[in-house]
Write a structure and sequence with these properties.
binds zinc ion, 2 domains, alpha+beta, single chain, CRO Repressor, 4-stranded antiparallel β-sheet
Length: 227
């Protein structure tokens, strides 16, 4: 194996200095162009924004070390991308269907303490993901949640029930969220698939709401929200 060819190949001192200059120029160009997007910073990206960042990223890197790639070409490409970005955001503000197309829509995941069935069935997100999000926001069981919305940037927004109005719901922490094998007649149980709460008589009963085949029920909680 030729180590010199892996690490150095045909790099000359003068090209090494050229790389320093190219990288510095591109560094400041990237900062200026990202400022032109008008965004304050990046937390979570929507798919549309991720596209912009990916395109800018690949264009920004190459001219740093590609000998026969003049920086002006990179500037032209980046300007085009930023122009398109600005045009799209302008269009999105004015025309709702266009925004839905590029950014997607916010999705209702929880309504009135139950998971919205068609969303989980379509598999747009897994149980574990919602549950982890809700746990991180201090939610113990679904009965504490009035509405849970999945935003287009992947964040989860929650509206909680007032603490005097908490109903029975599916526990979200693993130790409590376990399928029961025996039923006590005076207790509420929650369907582990959709969060539907009811008195049940058989631990293998089919859930009347989601009619899912998992047929698992966990003991429902109605503890209040403590913040
Ligand atoms: Zn169910």
């Amino acid at each position: 194996m030729d180590w010199a060819s892996i690490f150095i190949h045909d790099t000359t001192w003068s090209f090494a200095i050229e790389i320093l200059i190219r990288a510095s120029v591109m560094f400041f160009l990237i900062i200026s162009f990202l400022r032109f997007t008008g965004k304050r910073g990046v937390r979570q990206l929507s798919i549309f924004e991720l596209t912009i960042i990916l395109s800018l990223g690949s264009i920004a890197g190459d001219p740093m070390f590609t000998e026969d790639l003049p920086i002006i070409q990179a500037v032209l490409i980046m300007s085009t991308i930023i122009l398109l970005y600005r045009l799209c955001t302008w269009g999105m503000v004015r025309y709702q269907p266009f925004e839905n197309l590029l950014e997607g829509k916010a999705l209702y995941i929880v309504e009135d303490g139950m998971l919205v069935c068609n969303k989980i069935r379509k598999g747009s997100m897994s149980h574990d993901e919602f549950f982890a999000e809700m746990r991180q926001q201090g939610v113990e069981h679904l009965g504490q949640v009035r509405t849970g919305l999945l935003e287009t940037d992947g964040k989860f927004s929650l509206l909680l029930c007032p603490s005097d109005n908490v109903s029975y719901g599916l526990p979200l922490f693993p130790k409590q969220c376990q399928a029961v094998t025996q039923i006590e007649s005076d207790k509420y149980y929650a369907c582990m698939y959709c969060g539907y709460v009811d008195f049940i008589s058989d631990p293998d009963q089919l859930c009347p709401r989601c009619e899912n085949d998992c047929r698992n029920w966990a003991e429902a909680l109605n503890s209040k929200i403590i913040r």
